[in-house]
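Human: Not sure, check this?
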Amino acid sequence: MIRRPPAPLPWLAALLVIYLCAPFIAGVPQLWFTDWQSVNTAELWRALAVSLGSATVSVTLILIGGVPLSYCLARIPGRKTALVGFIVQLPLAIPPLASGILLLFLVGPYTPLGRLGQGALTDSFIGIVLAQTFVAAPFLIIASRSAFASVDPVLEDVSATLGRGKLETFIKVSLPLAWPGIRAGLLLSWLRAFGEFGATVMVAYHPYSLPVYTYVAFGSQGLPAMMPVLLPTL
């Protein structure tokens, strides 16, 4: 038996679907009016490679620390844990430009860490990774925490009664059961890192990532040159 939603709901859903699809449809006619010769193809592909590489490195770092953090947040009760959970989700609540400014307070060229890194933490590939990791990590943390919270602790207890240690139980029981949610969080984090602009432009204007290059190309060449830049993103 097919259960149909109440009458107003599909109409409301359709309105949002139409709005979300409309920009893509509106972009199709622009293919014929685009100034294809005005774009620096080599610079465009270089920016795309930077975004692909930096987003992948960022998500790898987020995975290494984010999954253990998410498990701790899901399994350790208390106010301190709740406070940590609140703090690590703050990058979602503040504007990306503000995130970039906060990162400059930490790794800027005149900070202790910046001087220790001899300027390599800003305007560099490392700077892009730092910015992307900061803004994208909460997506994995939230998804993974929910995934671990949905795993029945009884299954972990059963594993313990069978003589499995805590780490082995985590690797062989908790992690596989939570993996679908973790995988979704990884994808969201990667997409967020790939499209990150605000924090990146503050911390690492060079080398150009694809979002920063899009901003630069739009400022210098205008809307007619945007389609060649958007196509690799799409």
